[in-house]
Structures are given as C-alpha cells and as structure tokens.
Design brief:
This protein is of the alpha/beta class and 175 residues long. It has one domain: Rossmann fold (3-Layer(aba) Sandwich). Strands 2-1-3-5-4-6 form a six-stranded mixed β-sheet. Helix 1 packs parallel to helix 4. The chain is globular and about 40 Å long.
Length: 175
C-alpha cells in the first residue's frame, strides 16, 4: 500500500475558497488506510517535510476559473520559494522536498471550481458545493484503490495530462 498525503488548503472564511479544507475534512472522514490528511489556510515551506514522508501527495484547492466541476493533474517539482513563504505553490513545496530531504514523491493538484470568493462568511455557494461532492466521489474512489484512468485522458500517472469536465463526469458515471 502506498502512503498518501492529502493536503486541502484555502480560507473557509472566504466562501468558496474553503473548498480545499472542505474536501480534506471529507477525505479524513473516509478513514482510508495509508492516507494522511492535512488542512490549512495556505501551503507553507514546512509542508515539504510531510510531503517527503509520503509516496504520493495530493494538493486540493479552490479554482477561480478552472474546469468544472474540477481538474486533476500531475505536478512536478519546480523552483523554490523566494524570501517570503507566503503563497507557496505545490511545485515549490515539492522542490523543497527534493532539495532538503531527497524525496521524489508523485504529486497531483485537484482544483475544485468555485464561484464566490469576494465575500466574507463561511459556507459554499450551491454550485461549489455540488462540485465538492463530485470531487469527493472521484478522489474517494482513487484513494480506495480505484483506477486513475479517466477515459480520453488515459492514466494521468503515466501521461501527466489533466482531466476535468466531461471526462470527470464520465469516469464517475462508470463507477
């Protein structure tokens, strides 16, 4: 069994920006063996140590203009954060895991389409909540050992392509 780190990040006090932590809470309730769940407002340089201890990392966040209902794509180490750790991207966390710990984990970004980001308050918009439910169904199946295959995209583990939209809906329909 491969070890998986699932990190959901975003600000639940900014409406749909809470999609990442919302999905993290749902994944944690699934209690899947080998899956460690973390949630925070943003990624930090300290996340590199946790990433280094796992074979696979999935970063989940809200997407302002991404594919509906969500996209799922493989990411690789790229660059390193500058002087400030504010706004560290998944690729930069991976680069730190490589540079500081010699780790080479597989990593993916799951971007869930949100719509309301410019208001203060907790709770998701109805459309974002629907996208969250679809993302949960998809990632729950993958984490339970289901296929990564996504129809027209093939296997993102091998191809590195992104999936979303119709391919995601077709994959969920077949389960």
């Amino acid at each position: 069994m491969r070890t998986v780190l699932f990190i959901g990040y975003g600000n639940p006090g900014r409406r749909d920006d809470g999609l990442g932590p919302g999905l993290a809470a749902r994944v944690e309730r699934l209690a899947i063996p080998g899956v460690t769940v973390d949630s925070d407002y943003q990624l930090t340089v300290e996340d590199a140590e946790a990433v280094a201890r796992h074979e696979v990392t999935i970063f989940a966040d809200a997407s302002v203009g991404g594919t509906e209902p969500f996209y799922f794509r493989r990411v690789s180490a790229r660059g390193a954060p500058g002087f400030s750790s504010h706004g560290v991207e998944p690729e930069e966390v991976l680069a730190l895991a490589v540079d500081l710990f010699g780790a080479r984990p597989e990593a993916y970004v799951l971007g869930i389409r949100g719509y309301e980001f410019n208001a203060f308050g907790e709770g998701l918009s109805p459309r974002a909540a629907a996208n969250l439910a679809l993302a949960e169904a998809f990632i729950g199946g993958v984490l339970r050992g289901g296929s990564w295959a996504t129809g027209e995209c093939g296997d993102p583990v091998e191809s590195g392509c992104a999936i979303g939209g119709a391919a995601v809906k077709e994959t969920l329909r077949r389960r």
